[in-house]
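Input:
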Amino acid sequence: MRDMVRETILRREDLIMPYFVAETGSEDMVKPIETMPGQNQLGMKALLERVSRAVDNGLKSCILFGIPKEKDPMGSSGYAEDGVVQRALRELKKRFPGLVLITDVCLCEYTSHGHCGVLTEDGHVLNDPTLTLLAKAAVSHVQAGADIVAPSDMMDGRVAAIRTALDEHGYETTPIMSYAVKYASAYYGPFREAAESAPKAGDRKSYQMDPGNWREALREAAADVAEGADFLMVKPAGPYLDIIRLVRNNFDLPLAAYQVSGEYSVIKAAAQLGWMDHDTVMMESLLAIKRAGADLILSYFTEGVLERL
Ligand SMILES: [Zn+2]
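Output:
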C-alpha cells in the first residue's frame, strides 16, 4: 500500500551522469579518483565503453567535464575544435544518438591558474572578457554535438552572452542549463582532484554565492531567466534542499540540482567504514533532492542507481 501512496518517485530519466574525459593519458586510461571512490578520469575509449554500459542500463543523459593535456592562462583548450570535450562529443553523438549530451561550460578546467575566468595581473577575475571566451566554448560544444550547454562559471551576463552567440551561429533551439544558484561550497573539494581544477591562488568567493544567503538565490535565478536560461540549477543539492524548494516555488523552468562530489564522497566514506548502508542512503539522498523540487539530478551515483532501478 505504501507504494500506492508514495508522492515522490525517482526515475531513470531524472538522472544525469557526470563524466571526466581526459587526454592526459592513453585512450584506455581508467584513472581512479581517490577522493571519489568508484569515479575515474577516463581516456576516450574508456569513456565510450563506460557510457555504452550505462546506456544499456537506461542512461538518458550525461554531462562532460574535460581534462586537457595543455592549460594556459586563457583556457584556450576549452574552446578548441579538437579539444578533449569536443572530440568526446563527436564520438558520443555518433554512437549514442539518443543520449542527451550536456557540457559544462567553464574555463577553470583549462586555465593554468585554475580560475573560471581570465585574470588581471594582480589575480582578479575579469568578468566581461571572460564572457567572450565562454560563448566561444559553448558554440564549439554545440558544433561538436552537445544538446544542452551548462555554464557553471558564475560570471555576470554569461547566459545572455552564450544565448546571443548560439543564436548567431544558428543554434536558436539549443537550450542553456544555467548553474544559476551556485554556492561557494567546501563540498566541491573532491571534484577539484577529479577535474584538476583547484585555483592555484585565492578562491572563488568573489563569483560564487555565500552559503548563508537565500534571497540572493532568487536574484541570481531571476537574472538568468531574464537572460534566456532554459533550465535552472542549484548546486550543491543535499545541503541546500531549502534553496531547491525556494527556486521551485518561484520559477517554472525545469530545475536541476547537482549532488556534488563531497555529497557523494561522504556517503562512500561512511559506507566503507560500515557506518551507513550505502545503497539505502544513496537512494534516500536522491529521493530527498527530488522531493525538494528538483526535476533532474546530476549525480555520481547515476550509474549505480541505474543498475538498481
Ligand atoms: Zn569553473
